[in-house]
Request: fold
Amino acid sequence: LHTTNFGSFHKSELLLLFRTVAVEGNPPPYSEIINRFARVSNLLHVEPSGDAKTVKMTFDILMRKDMEPKELSLRMAEVEGVTEVVLVASKHDVDY
Reply:
């Protein structure tokens, strides 16, 4: 357990939160943007709305070195069906 750091806190670089319409299709339209900007991305949370027409999603993001977080948030907001884009810098603030 010591070798794998089992049970230790995971430090996140950025949290990406957004709401999107429930759309059919694989991959979803926002995944191309996330893949372009993120070196690593992990889905942390999915929360459906009361009417089940949208879902709120939270991703843990490790940015590529040559990409800017502000640009990621701007590009995500341009994706059709994506609203409420929030990017939280959590490198030193949030423990998992």
Remarks:
- The mean pLDDT is 83.
